[in-house]
Structure formats: C-alpha cells, structure tokens
C-alpha cells in the first residue's frame, strides 16, 4: 500500500478487490490464491496499519 492514501475501509477494498471488510476498521485479505488470510486493523486518522493475524484458510 505504499503511496496509497486510504481514509476508509471502502477505499482499501476498492484498491484490493478480494479484500473483505470485517467491520469499521478491520479488513481481511486473501493471499496466495486464498490459501492464506491476513487480517489488518486500520487507524486511518493516524495512517497506521496493524497486522492482527496471518493464517491458512483452514484456520
């Protein structure tokens, strides 16, 4: 996301079409064809992203 200027989860989802918004500040990303998932929490006001979890699809 280097260089991206997102202010909402909807804008993140527009950049990453396979991303799924979980709530007002968390987004799940599919990685490696859906074999893995990354859940990230966004603090848009501070321009921060926290990786909450990385796991396999089964987890």
Give a short summary of the structure:
This protein has one helix at 9-15, and strands spanning 20-21, 26-31, 36-43, 48-56. It has 59 residues and is mainly beta. The mean pLDDT is 89.
3D structure, described in words:
With 59 residues, this protein is mainly beta. It has one domain (9-56). The protein is built from 1 helix and 4 strands, in the order αββββ. Strands 1-2-3-4 form a 4-stranded antiparallel sheet, covered by helices on one side. A hairpin with a 4-residue loop joins strand 3 (36-43) and strand 4. The termini are far apart. The mean pLDDT is 89.
- Note the total helix count: 1
Query: Largest beta sheet: what is the strand line-up?
Result: 1-2-3-4
Content of β-strand: 35-45%
How would you describe the shape?
globular
Structural class: mainly beta
Run of helices and strands: HEEEE
Spans where pLDDT lies below 50 across 5 or more residues? none
Rg calculated over all Cα atoms: 11 Å
- The N- to C-terminal Cα distance equals 25 Å
How confident overall, as mean pLDDT? Answer: 89
Number of strands: 4
Oligomerization state: single chain
Share of residues in helices: 10-25%
For the biggest sheet, the summary is: 4 strands, antiparallel
Question: What number of domains?
Answer: 1
Topology:
Layout: H1 9-15, E1 20-21, E2 26-31, E3 36-43, E4 48-56
Q: Top keywords for this entry?
A:
four-stranded antiparallel beta sheet, 59 residues, mainly beta, globular
């Amino acid at each position: 996301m280097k260089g991206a200027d997102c202010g909402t989860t909807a804008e993140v989802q527009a950049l990453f079409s396979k991303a799924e918004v979980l709530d007002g500040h968390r987004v799940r990303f599919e990685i490696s064809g859906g074999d893995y998932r990354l859940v990230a929490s966004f603090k848009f006001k501070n321009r921060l992203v926290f990786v909450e979890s990385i796991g396999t699809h089964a987890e």
